[in-house]
Amino acid sequence: MQLIGMLDSPYVRRVAISLKLYGLPFEHRPVSVFRHFDEFRRINPLVKAPSLVCDDGVVLTDSSLILDYLEQLAEPQKQLMPAAPAAARRQALQLLGIALTACDKTVQVVYELQQRPAEMRHQPWLDRVQLQLTAAYDALEAAVMRAHPWLLGERLSQADVTVAVAWRFTQFYIADRVAAERYPLLAAWSARAEALSEFLATPLD
Ligand SMILES: N[C@@H](CCC(=O)N[C@@H](CS)C(=O)NCC(=O)O)C(=O)O
Predict the structure, then answer these.
(1) What is the pLDDT of residues 30-58, one digit of tens each?
(2) Residue of 107, 165, 170, 174 to test ligand 1 pocket, by largest number of atoms within 8 Å of CB
(3) What are the structural domain ranges in the chain?
(4) Which residue's CA lies nearest to atom 14 of ligand 1?
(5) Which atom of ligand 1 is closest in space to residue 34's alpha carbon?
(6) Strands across the sheet with 51-53, in order?
(7) CA-based nearest residue to 15, from 200, 158, 189, 194
(8) Where are the alpha helices (DSSP H) in 23-157?
(9) Does domain 2-78 fall into CATH 3.40.30.10?
(10) CA pair distance 21, 16, nearest whole angstrom
(11) Ligand 1 geometric centre to CA of 11 (Å)
(12) Are the C-beta atoms of 52 and 2 separated by less than 8 Å?
């Protein structure tokens, strides 16, 4: 199995960390969607990171779909999504939706600032994205307040992986727009997740 994409992508990083938590062997190929566009196209013409090249050559796209597949390969005691009760699964899905929106909105800001020429930037769009980003992190700060010690309880789950990865990504790229001081619980809780060996072995930078 090959995981394609750079670890500065939160979507790639959440899959890489999950693979390590699952204990599934894989090869990581840090191919960039921007700097190695042609090489990426040869692997997956969609040029989306992450891409997962399975052992039989089938290529999967989109981190949540890739994780859905990998979750089935993992031993039951290593799975990261609660199968039951339904309330725990719903809570995980709710938190994942918020954290992935935080990632998407951070990506939109970064692309607007890095990919679009300055004279073509559209401030109303950035303002709108900022409101969505703030809403996402306000909700995650409230969720962390209820964590004991992880978001769903005793066991680390996919919600923890993705929330921590989202926070690290946003802080790395746009800490000026999402001030850590506004989210003290999230910052401290994320530092605890980032200290786990699977996170340390999967650095963003
Ligand atoms: N929903 C997707 C988002 C993936 C995504 O947008 N990845 C970025 C890298 S951070 C990418 O492929 N960008 C290139 C592009 O969209 O053309 C997922 O969860 O995998």
Answers:
(1) 999 999 999 999 999 999 999 999 999 99
(2) 107
(3) 2-78, 86-200
(4) 48
(5) 14
(6) 27-29, 2-4, 51-53, 59-61
(7) 158
(8) 37-43, 63-73, 86-114, 123-145
(9) yes
(10) 9
(11) 7
(12) yes
Q: How far apart are CA 109 and CA 82, in angstroms?
A: 32
Query: For residue 49, how far is its CA from the centre of ligand 1 (angstroms)?
Result: 5
- 3-state secondary structure (DSSP) of residue 159: helix
pLDDT above 90: residue 76? yes
Q: What is the CA radius of gyration of the chain?
A: 17
- Write out the two tokens for 115: 């990919």
Query: Who's near 192: CB < 8 A, 6+ residues apart?
Result: 149
86-200 in CATH: which number? 1.20.1050.10
**Rounded (5°) CA angle 25-30-34:** 150
51: CA distance to ligand 1 center in Å? 9
Atom number in ligand 1 closest to CA 33: 14
Measured in Å, residue 10 CA sits from the centre of ligand 1 at 9
Query: DSSP letter at 153?
Result: B
Give the tens place of pLDDT for each residue, 107-133: 999 999 999 999 999 999 999 999 999
Instruction: Give strand pairing partners of 193.
Output: none
> Using a 6 Å CB cutoff, which residues line ligand 1?
9, 11, 33, 47-50, 62-64, 107
CA angle (172 as vertex; 171, 178 as ends), nearest 5: 25
